[in-house]
Amino acid sequence: MRQHRSDLHALSAAYALHALESSERADFAAHLVHCEDCRREVAEFEATTARLAAAASQTPPQSLKRQTLSEIDGVRQLPPQVSAAGPKTSFAHRLKRKAVPLSLAASIAAAVSFAGVAAWQHQEIENAQRQAQRAEQQLGSVSTVLAAPDARTAHGRTTNGALTTVVTSERQNKAVFTASGLPAPTSGHTYQLWLDHAGTMQPAGFLHDDGTVLIDGDPAEATAVGLTLEPTGGSPQPTTQPLLLLALPS
After folding, report:
1. How far apart are the C-alpha atoms of 166 and 162, rounded to whole Å?
2. How far apart are CA 133 and CA 112, in angstroms?
3. What is the pLDDT of residues 73-119, one digit of tens each?
4. 214: number of Cβ within 10 Å
């Protein structure tokens, strides 16, 4: 902001909003020591902006502050009433005098709130789009394996009663795992798939409930697919007895 020294009384709202340049803020801070009216107005503005800002917890874009500061010079703030200057004014006149700076504070807080909500909505839309793309890619890969001319199938049952199917395609070098009737995992745990490479179990993805997933990893040299119950997030090696160890179809 650019204000003349004679306009120090008009800087209450800008000081409360931390919108002053460092030199202006220092001048106004020195002025506050001797001006009770400005101290009271700063306290009122700080309380008002705190209540308004509490309604918006989203982080505004960096460009918002620059845009606000570049345009704020066009808003002329009325100075506060100073006790030593002139006759007392009416309560209605004081309300009118405060309307402009309070509107300014409300406008800034509302802009912050709107920008935060807009940014959050944009992020949510992008996340949903990425999830949809991943699901579409997964479905395409699963369909490719199931429809492959060289697809081979094996069936099994887990120790907790679920029916399972593994479909492999040597040409695609991929495998698909399906489970039906799989009990919900206990709290803090998830089902983890494994590929058995000559006795070494390598992580091959997760199965959170019934359904079909593409097995992670290279099934070409694997001899079997395993399923265990692991802590949420998975384990580098199985930590529980296998619920299933099914030989891959050849």
Report:
1. 13
2. 32
3. 665 555 555 555 545 555 455 444 545 555 556 666 666 555 565 56
4. 18
